[in-house]
Design goal:
With 349 residues, the protein is an alpha+beta fold. The protein has 7 helices and 20 strands. The strands form 4 sheets. Strands 1, 2, 10, 11, 12, 13, 19 and 20 form an 8-stranded mixed sheet that branches. Helix 3 crosses helix 7. The model has no long low-confidence stretch (mean pLDDT 95). It binds flavin-adenine dinucleotide.
Length: 349
């Protein structure tokens, strides 16, 4: 009998598996290895200051410190570079945005992330930046597709991973254990992203899925080794002259597939900032497990004490998952209370 079954090996299930592994617990991760999921197409950015209004990410100081140490430890264990500091230059779109930034810079709370009032000017021959931009410090990025693949292989080699689609109807739950197609465990944790909408135990949680689309483009003669953020994000993507361009955010989508609407929104954003030629190589879409109130969904079912969920990471899974996977592990193993902001008790009782 395993201590835990984890359903889903996206960023959420992966980090949970990591902390249970660190704690010496036995578990089996089940994942359908879908070709596309948000975790597989994310740009992997950990960004402390986001949004038009330049708002510090919720719990940024704690999340970033924890993400840095966790991904560093995973890199070491998997013996593969996966996580690196990322320079972000965000472009101003007006004098007003320059003024807003200047106000933020004067706040102590923002000083670790925003630079001392230095306006950055990028080469106007390649980038349209009439107002210049500014640097965001403290950001990083995870090579998520590589991370998921390497961790899957690692778990597989420890008999901690099995591939296949989890069928909810086949789960049997008793007071002391769960059983799925002959696999027994003391506890099951669902980390299946937006597929949770089909999960009979948790489908009534207030998910507000948001589709995201991105492009992979070839831009020759564009010597920028850092991320540029304007209407779109332009991010060097691990191969010479290849860039990730993202991402749309659409809460009113008809299907999860790449759309002409998403592509043209990204192209419009790219053409507004880029002054050189480019070629689109690929176009992806996936649906983020976002939630009303924008806080994770973590906790145990009110009736079934061995059925839990780790979900709702929304637009920030790479930043949130390390801290909250550890937080949830401490709760499951030692009974430390969950933060009320993330506990599913706020919706289920
Ligand atoms: C275009 C785009 C860009 C993004 N950029 C960023 C970014 O830069 N930084 C950031 O922090 N976040 C970003 N995000 C958000 C981030 O991707 C999500 O927060 C995160 O991936 C959610 O991870 P998850 O593990 O909860 O869900 P998922 O990624 O959906 O993982 C769920 C896993 O469970 C599997 N699964 C589902 N149902 C079953 C089943 N029944 N049986 C077996 N397996 C199942 C799926 O195949 C998948 O592997 C982006 C998202 C998109 C779409």
């Amino acid at each position: 009998m395993f201590d835990f079954i984890i359903v889903g090996q996206g960023i959420a299930g992966s980090l949970l598996a990591w902390f249970l592994h660190q704690a010496g617990k036995s578990f089996l991760v089940m994942d359908d290895s879908a070709a596309i999921s948000p975790s597989r197409i994310t740009s992997g950015i950990v960004n402390p200051v986001t949004g038009r209004r330049l708002v510090k990410t919720w719990l940024a100081d704690e999340l970033l410190t924890f993400a840095d140490s966790t991904y560093a430890a995973i890199e070491k264990e998997l013996n593969t570079p996966l996580y690196e500091p990322l320079k972000i230059v965000r472009l101003f779109d007006s004098v007003k945005s320059q003024n807003d930034w200047s106000v933020r810079c004067s706040s102590d709370e923002y000083s670790p992330y925003l630079d001392n009032n230095t306006v950055v000017h990028l080469n106007p021959k390649t980038i349209n930046n009439p107002f210049g931009g500014f640097e965001i410090k403290g950001a990083s990025r995870l090579h998520t597709s590589l991370f998921l693949e390497k961790l899957k292989n690692y778990l597989r080699s420890n008999q901690q991973f099995t591939e296949g689609k989890f069928a909810y109807a086949e789960l049997e739950v008793t007071d002391s254990s769960v059983s799925y197609k002959g696999v027994k465990a003391r506890h099951i944790i669902f980390a299946e992203g937006t597929q949770a909408l089909q999960n009979p135990y948790f489908s009534n949680l207030p998910f507000q899925p948001a589709k995201g689309e991105c492009l992979l483009v070839h831009i020759p003669d564009f010597p920028h080794s850092f991320m540029i953020k304007s209407e779109v994000t332009i991010l060097p993507f691990y191969e010479k002259d290849i860039y990730y361009v993202g991402a749309t955010h659409d809460a009113f989508f008809e299907n999860p597939f790449p759309s002409e609407k998403g592509k043209s929104e990204l192209l419009q954003g790219l053409q507004a900032v880029l002054k050189c030629t480019f070629k689109v190589l690929d176009h992806w879409a996936a649906v983020r497990p976002a939630v009303k109130g924008r806080r994770p969904l973590i906790g145990t079912h009110p009736q079934f004490k061995n059925v839990s969920i780790f979900n709702g990471l929304g637009t920030k899974g790479v930043s949130l998952a390390p801290f909250f996977a550890n937080h949830f592990t401490q709760h499951l193993l030692h009974g430390t209370p969950l933060m009320p902001e993330v506990d599913i008790k706020r919706f289920l009782s």
